[in-house]
Structures are given as C-alpha cells and as structure tokens.
Specification:
Elements: E1 2-4, H1 8-19, E2 28-30, H2 37-50, E3 58-60, E4 92-93, H3 94-99, E5 105-108, E6 125-128, H4 136-140, H5 142-149, E7 155-158, H6 161-164, H7 170-173, H8 178-189, H9 197-204, E8 209-212, E9 215-219, H10 221-233
Parallel strand pairs: 1-2, 1-5, 2-3, 3-4, 5-6, 6-7, 7-9
Antiparallel strand pairs: 8-9
Helix pairs in contact: 1-2, 1-8, 1-9
Length: 234
C-alpha cells in the first residue's frame, strides 16, 4: 500500500510499483503535501488510469500540509495532468483502508499526516522518510512525523540517499515514451534522482540496499536507476 502526495516523483513511484512483478499494490491513500489534497487525488487517479489499474482502491486522507512548489509544476505533475481527472472508482476514506489492510507494507511517500492518525496495528511495517528531522515530508508536518516515529509501529527509515542516489541522465530518458518519459525528463532536467520511487525499488530490489537496524543507510544508485528504467519501459 502506498500513501502518496502525488507530485512528479510519487507518480513515478506509482508507475514503478504497478509494473513491478515483485510488488502488489493493494490500495493507494492520498495526503496533502506537494499539492492540495484534491489535486493529489486527481493526479493519483490519472496515473492509475494511464497504468490501466483503475481497479486499485484510492483512499482520501488528511488535507493539512500544502506546499504547491514549482519543482512539481502547477498541477503537481510537471504540466502533464489532464484538465479533468481520470475516471476511477469513488475514493474511500484512507483511515478505513489502512485499518483493514492487514499484514502489508505501507510506503509513506508524503507527509505523515494521515499515517500518524491511522490504525496501523495490523500492518507489517511502514517504510518512510517522513520521520527524519530536516526531511521535506517531515518538515511539512513535524507533529505527525514525531507521532508516527513514536507510535510503536515497525518502521524502516529511508535515508536521503535512497532518493538522491538513483540519478537520471538526460540523454538516457530523452526518447522515453508516454507519461513516464515526461516525468523522467522533468526530474532529469532539474538534476534530480528518482525521488520517492526509491522506496518502491527497496521492495522490488532489496539487494540494492544496505539496511542497518531500522534504517536504509546506502543504496546502489546505478543498479536502482537501471531497474526503474527497465520497469518503466516495460
């Protein structure tokens, strides 16, 4: 299950997860973060539609942090989102989906606002960077970050290297097709890596990471970049 604030890198994370044979996306919950909540839901629906997975349940979470930063463009998807949201099943309540999720891994790719207030007693673990001081998602809602870190839920913290080390070379993504191509070119043009898609690569290719205790301390950036491009091209 992914908890997202769907901007450019969360859209890439969704596409990578949906195309990985080693990851099963049972639901997606939305939280305000990079863009307002309504835009996050619309962007998430669009990405699921492009991937042919409108069957995936969507949950609407909380609408507190809003950082409509220019890094993701006015629509949160580098200008690639349609004017009208894609058709998909009506969204459910995120807390309901999380409480009923069972023994799954939850990837927290946005602020911890929704996860910190959800019943996570049944989940296997939460993988997130939103609990570390100074990290962008944590800075959007520091109270929620602290609450999630102290909630007693099995937590695996991704260090910033998991997001920045898988780099994108403009020449390698110049001719990439479709939505994935547009998103990859946006990230490459601003010198960014795969961002939140790194959390998905941890599940798809755990051998590319070094885990110490409750933290991912290092990743094989080139290996994860190659794997992400392989999945996105498929």
């Amino acid at each position: 299950m992914l908890d997202v604030d769907t901007g450019v890198d969360d859209a890439l994370a969704l596409l990578v997860a949906l195309r990985s044979p080693r990851v099963e996306v049972v639901a997606v919950t939305c939280v305000a973060g990079n863009v307002p909540l309504a835009r996050v839901v619309a962007n998430t629906r669009f990405v699921l539609a492009v991937a042919g997975r409108c069957d995936v349940p969507i949950g609407v979470g909380l609408d507190r942090p809003v950082t409509a930063g220019s890094r993701h463009g006015p629509d949160g998807l580098a200008g690639l989102a349609p004017a009208q949201p894609a058709v998909s099943p009506p969204p459910a309540d995120a807390h309901t989906l999380l409480a009923a999720a069972g023994a799954v891994t939850v990837l927290g790719l946005g602020p911890a606002t929704t996860l910190a207030t959800a019943d996570l007693r049944r989940v296997r673990r939460v993988v997130t960077v939103a609990t570390d001081n100074g990290e962008a998602n944590a800075a959007m809602d520091p109270e929620a970050a602290g609450a999630l870190a102290g909630a007693g839920v099995p937590l695996l913290r991704l260090g910033g290297t998991a997001f920045s080390a898988p780099r994108l070379i403009p020449a390698r993504v110049a001719a990439f097709p479709g939505l994935a191509g547009g998103l990859l070119r946006h990230q490459a043009a601003r010198g960014a890596g795969l961002g939140d898609a790194g959390a998905v690569l941890l599940l798809d290719d755990p051998g590319g990471a070094v885990v110490r205790g409750d933290r991912v301390s290092a990743v094989n950036g080139p290996r994860w970049t190659a794997r992400a491009l392989e999945l996105l091209a498929g």
